[in-house]
Amino acid sequence: MLRDQLRAGVAHVGLALREPEHFAAAWNEGAARYSLAVWAALAATAILGTTTYGMVMGMLGGPGDVLAKALSCTLAAGLAWGIPLPALYILNSMAGSRLPASSTLLAALVTTSWGGLAMIASVPIGWFFTVAIPHPGFALLVHLVVFTGVGVAMIDVFGRVLRRLEPERGTAPLWWLGLVGVIGAELFYFLGLFDFGFVGS
Questions:
Q1: What pLDDT shows up at residue 16?
Q2: How far apart are CA 134 and CA 126, in angstroms?
Q3: The whole model's pTM is what?
């Protein structure tokens, strides 16, 4: 029983990452009812992505920094994605959206899960350049490029999902991901993930 649930959960997450629009539309239209395990697996994908990339961000500082930045990256990303979520639903509804809260949450969760997968795919890039040129300034530049690329990909996924859910509205509220980016940048700086201390030294 548990094995079947696990297998079904993995299959659903695979569909969410391959075809996020279809996955979210199936829920919104009532064609599929995803179990709590599927929602948890989507969140776990995002957590795994931020944790593994955070480990890469701490490579120049030794084992302690690897662990600290893995946890800090996950915390900062989780807060950045979670804090604006109520505003997404409230302001989207005020602008005429008829999406239920569960569909709005699923669209956001699929997007963050996709972003987590993109972070995992970016680990070899961050690792290679950090090892090849172990300078804090260059490593920061590489990380900023990676986060920018992941952010652009997430904007695309989120926009496609919401346009599929509400095609009559045309444009998706991409301001939410802009807000996520601003809050995330502040948290990453506050938690020491973006370290500009080398400047002027």
A1: 84
A2: 11
A3: 0.87
